[in-house]
Design a protein that fits this description.
- By secondary structure, the chain is an all-alpha fold.
- The chain has one domain.
- A two-stranded antiparallel sheet has the order 1-2.
- α1 runs antiparallel to α9 and α3 crosses α11.
- The radius of gyration is 18 Å and the shape is globular.
C-alpha cells in the first residue's frame, strides 16, 4: 500500500474525529449557536454520505467482488456486507444506553449555555461515561472514513468532511452537560475533544486486524460494510438531528445540496 495514501487516510480520520473539539469550543465561546445552520449542515452531511455510499462505495465494492467471485456470488456478498455494516452500527447504537448516548438528540430551538444544560442534564451521569459512549460510537465511523480514503482519496475527503460536520454539534451536545455536571469547562472540553480520538483509533485497529488477510475480496467486503455504516449514520443520526435542530426545509435543502455537491465532485473526476 502506498505510504502517502496511508498517511492521507489517517490524517483525514484524525481531522474528522477531532472536530468534536470545534463543537466544544463553539459551545463555550459563543453564547448562542445558529441551529438553522447546524440543521442545514447536518442535512448536507447526510446527503453527501448517502449519495457517495449508494452510488460510489457499494458500486466499487460490487465491482471488486464480482471480478473475483462472479456476478451472482459477488452481488449477493455485496448486499450481505452492506447490511452487515448496518447491523454492526445499529447494534452498537442499541447497546449504548440512552443516558450516555450522544445520538439521542432533543428538540431545541437555540443553544444557550443554561438552557441547553438543563435540557441535557439528565442524560449524563459522569463525564467519563459520556466520553466513553461517544468513543464507542465514533469507533466504526473512524474505520469507515479510513477505509474510504484508502480506497479512493476523492471519496475519503468528502466523507471526512461530512463526519466532521456531524461531530461538531455532537461536541456541543456533550461539552455543555459535562460542564454543568462537573463545573469544569476545561474538563468538559477535553473529554469531548479526546473522545474524537476513537475515530483514528478505530481506523488503526481495524486496519491492523485486516492487514494480514487483506486481499481484493476482504477489501471489497469491508468497503461494502462501510457503505452500510454510512447510510445508517445518516438515517439514524444526521437526518433526525437535522430535523430537531432546525426547520424541516433547512434539513431537506441541505440534504439535496449535499447530494448535488457530491455528485459534481465525482463527475469532475470521471
Amino acid at each position: 500500500m502506498d505510504t502517502q495514501n496511508l498517511l492521507i487516510a489517517i490524517g483525514l480520520t484524525v481531522f474528522a474525529g477531532l472536530s468534536t473539539g470545534i463543537g466544544s469550543a463553539m459551545a463555550f465561546f459563543a453564547r448562542r449557536t445558529n441551529t438553522s445552520f447546524l440543521s442545514a449542515s447536518m442535512g448536507f452531511s447526510a446527503g453527501v454520505m448517502i449519495y457517495v455510499s449508494l452510488i460510489e462505495i457499494v458500486s466499487k465494492a460490487k465491482d471488486g467482488l464480482t471480478e473475483e467471485l462472479g456476478i451472482v456470488a459477488g452481488s449477493w456478498l455485496t448486499a450481505a456486507a452492506f447490511f452487515a455494516g448496518i447491523f454492526i452500527i445499529a447494534l452498537i447504537d442499541k447497546v449504548i444506553p440512552d443516558i450516555g448516548n450522544p445520538h439521542e438528540t432533543q428538540k431545541i430551538e437555540k443553544i444557550d449555555d443554561a438552557e441547553a444544560a438543563e435540557k441535557y442534564r439528565n442524560l449524563y451521569r459522569t463525564g467519563l461515561f459520556t466520553a466513553l459512549a461517544i468513543a464507542i460510537h465514533n469507533f466504526p465511523e473512524g474505520f469507515a472514513t479510513f477505509m474510504a480514503a484508502i480506497k479512493d482519496v476523492r471519496i475519503g475527503i468528502p466523507i471526512a468532511v461530512a463526519i466532521a460536520i456531524h461531530n461538531i454539534p455532537e461536541g456541543i451536545a456533550v461539552s455543555i452537560p459535562v460542564y454543568y455536571a462537573t463545573g469544569n469547562r476545561k474538563k468538559a472540553f477535553w473529554l469531548s475533544f479526546l473522545s474524537g480520538l476513537a475515530e483514528p483509533l478505530g481506523a488503526v485497529i481495524g486496519y491492523t486486524i485486516l492487514f494480514s488477510i487483506m486481499n481484493n475480496i476482504i477489501y471489497s467486503i469491508a468497503f461494502a460494510a462501510v457503505g452500510g455504516i454510512m447510510v445508517f449514520i445518516s438515517v439514524d443520526q444526521l437526518i433526525p438531528a437535522a430535523e430537531k435542530y432546525g426547520k424541516h426545509h433547512y434539513a431537506v435543502y441541505g440534504f439535496v445540496a449535499g447530494m448535488i455537491v457530491m455528485a459534481i465532485s465525482l463527475l469532475l473526476f470521471v
